[in-house]
Amino acid sequence: MTLVLAFSIAVMFGAGAYLLLKHDLIRVVAGMVLISNAANLFIMSAGLSKGSAAIYPLPEDGSVSDPLVQAMTLTAIVISFGVSALLLSLVYRVYQTHRSVDIEQLAVAEEVETRQREEAVAEAEEEVPVAEEEEMALAERGANPVPVSVSESEDR
Amino acid sequence: MLVLPLAICWFSAVGLAILDGRRPTVAWTAVGALTAAFASIIVLATDVISGQPQQVVAGGWLPGVGIVLRADALGILFAIVSLGVLLAALLFETLGGVRSRSFPSLVMFLATGLTGLFLTGDAFNFYVFFEISMIASYVLTAYGEERRQLRAAAIFAVVNLLGSVLFLIAIAALYHITGRLDLFGIGARITEVPSRTVVLSAALVFVAFSVKLGLFPFHFWLAAVYTGTRPAVAAILSGAVANIGAYGLLRFGAELLPRELGFSSPALLVIGSASILYGGLQALSRNTLPEVLAYSSIGQAGYILLALGIGEQVGYSAAVLFAIVNSLNKGLLFLSENLRGWLVGAAFAVGGFSVAGVPPAAGFVSKAALFRAGIAEGSVLLIILIFLGGALSFIYMLRSYQRRFWVPEAPPDGQPAAHGSSPLRVRAIVVALALLVIALGVWPEPLLALSRDAAAVLPPVSVESAR
């Protein structure tokens, strides 16, 4: 029984970790859900017993299970439920703004925006006096984002 | 009395959640509530520090059976600093104009989580409050809701959630080993167990808090998040939320698992050193101010670990002192990130000096404490390393000051607000923080005494005996 539980926790955690390494943010969230549930099972396994009820007034005959782990697991389930909902809504907002949930494309976007900021800093240091010129330059860059190849973003 | 700050934060957070935080009255209500909570924490602190630690057991159960809220010098000190930084950031954002309806409420939820976490005496409740504050900060990271902030929030949430789950597993394992959940009980029973059964949970606890703190091998999320969020949120994350990591390492490492801390001290020293050097060198190579500050945070986290690795009272009090001064510094620097005007320049310079550990600022006191700990350890290498880290941080702070305040007119990001000086009210907060940093540097005695009191909470033995 304990071995089966340990094995299933391991499988769940492993599968979650595998999904966490995927490029798709939805799969990442799914991986987080699996890992949280593996943790819930682990808490249950901390007070594992078979067949007894978890009730405080001790019965005259027989044993009781540890009720505390069940209370903890319940709390942990509620928390992981809330966090999963939050993560999904966050991913949805990312999708709304980027039209993509692929981590690599997000990294490309990050790279482009970072480069724009750095160029703005460099320009500020070179004393571009007229603000309008800079605005025009910014608008131009906005229209034609600096091309960044995927391989470059992988190097980071 | 112990429940009061928690209750104020919690009820006001729930109440504010249904109101529109963009309206000034609502935001000011939040400021008022947080001030009240802050004041009650300070009143509590005067009781705790002058006398015994205070304790409340929920539901009238016996201690050890019921859930315990417990205030001792270590927790209360961290609570004061974290709430102070939160208050400064909330005031900053309120004066500058809140941009989303949930911001004041989220800050209050974060305050609830942090207060609870620093004042709890129960390992599982620690996790619950930890999650409350983390969930609030995931949403806060997305504050502003531009593309960068959303990306930052996604990274932050996934990485830190993994850290939280590891921590939960560690707590379950500790419960399995000791059969107790109250911190005192765990600490008392853990010594009866052979160390090899505990070491895995100790490693999990260490990883979980290192992720929070942003130490070197676990830092990868930090730069993207701190640079992506808005200044007030970055100040909250590095000034208040990062304290969870430092406090957790002290509470769980030094109090509950002193044996494991003792024999892993070489590893802590190596990781801390790597963190200092990596953070310093990366900060030196970055061009934009937020990035410099983000990598600087990684370097500063290394010092805390270094002090923890040195151990003993002298090391613990240096760690407490460093964590506190560092959160003030980072709060100050991140808040002044986008402001302009000579007052802000002066405040930023104070923050920069403090990070580098130059005398008039509080950073000097914490660096001096670290040197003292290094000398007590008797390792020349450590002292050289602390000095080298300080030199690196001096160079990168000077460079970013130069870039930030010595450039004429054209603003780095092209924001309209950056032309001319920022509103006086907003600048006043930054200046007040800077004055506080200077005051603590000029008159460090109260802070030193507090950090000694806080370190005295932790068991003085063990690090030597374990070697």
Polypeptide structure, described:
The complex is a heterodimer of chains A (156) and B (467). Chain A has two domains: 2-50 and 65-99, Helix Hairpins, CATH 1.10.287; 104-155. Helix content of chain A is 74%, strand content 0%. Chain A has helices at 2-20, 25-46, 67-98, 103-125, 131-143, 150-155. In chain A, helix 1 runs antiparallel to helix 2 and helix 2 (25-46) packs antiparallel against helix 3 (67-98). The longest helix of chain A has 32 residues, at 67-98. Residues 128-135 and 140-156 of chain A have low confidence and may be disordered. Chain B is mainly alpha-helical and 467 residues long. In chain B, strands 1-2 form a two-stranded antiparallel ribbon. The model of chain B is unreliable at 414-419 and 462-467 (pLDDT under 50). Helices cover 77% and strands 2% of the residues of chain B. Chain B has one domain (4-408, 417-466). Chain B has helices spanning 4-17, 24-50, 73-96, 103-119, 123-141, 147-178, 183-190, 195-213, 222-228, 231-256, 258-263, 265-285, 289-310, 312-335, 342-356, 362-377, 380-405, 424-442, 445-457, 463-466; strands spanning 54-57, 68-71.
Kindly state the mean pLDDT of chain A as a whole number?
Answer: 78
- Helices of chain B, by number, come to 20
| Count of helix runs of chain A | 6
**Assembly status:** heterodimer
